[in-house]
Amino acid sequence: xxxxxxxxxxxxxxxxxxxxxxxxxxxxxxxxxxxxxxxxxxxxxxxxxxxxxxxxxxxxxxxxxxxxxxxxxxxxxxxxxxxxxxxxxxxxxxxxxxxxxxxxxxxxxxxxxxxxxxxxxxxxxxxxxxxxxxxxxxxxxxxxxxxxxxxxxxxxxxxxxxxxxxxxxxxxxxxxxxxxxxxxxxxxxxxxxxxxxxxxxxxxxxxxxxxxxxxxxxxxxxxxxxxxxxxxxxxxxxxxxxxxxxxxxxxxxxxxxx
Length: 258
Known about the structure:
The chain has about 260 residues and is α/β, with parallel strands linked by helices. It is built from 12 helices and 10 strands.
């Protein structure tokens, strides 16, 4: 990874009660990049994001964001520093309208004119949300709720966005649409993204750099282009055999998503 890191984790350990979920995790996210963490269910991927955003306090290690240590800080403090977390399962406020959900994302901000500008920008990314601005969020489809969760995170004007399983439960068409917007957000706004994603093929074609997590430990890291060529990755995460793997890919290279 580049030395121009907006985020660094150094030897992080986090636990649920007495059980360690991640062990000695070190990773970095370069400014303006998309980084993905791959791993099986239960490997500890979501725990990494929760530890960064302050939902879980690490037992050991440091987290540095823009040169400042942020471990063991409250989630609202972390948001104010410039990190937004899009959790697994979306967790929209179901009885609030779409627009009220979006304004909840901007609760730490005082620049009302810029908030109004950003509201129009997220509506431009996801026009269906503008159409349904006054509808209760709980009445949206799963894909629309995911759009809302991403947009709500953007309303905090983050420098870094943590995305946890954004394709979960979505059709391939909706997955493609949402990840196309994620790439636009990264390219147009310069927002760095740390992505946890069950669909390894999508993640590796969207991201610049990747880490592989097994039983709470990082066991491999490389550029996503190189990870796509590794036999173990193709077989265990992409369901491909080494021979003929390229012809079996369902997703296009990153440059074709943009």
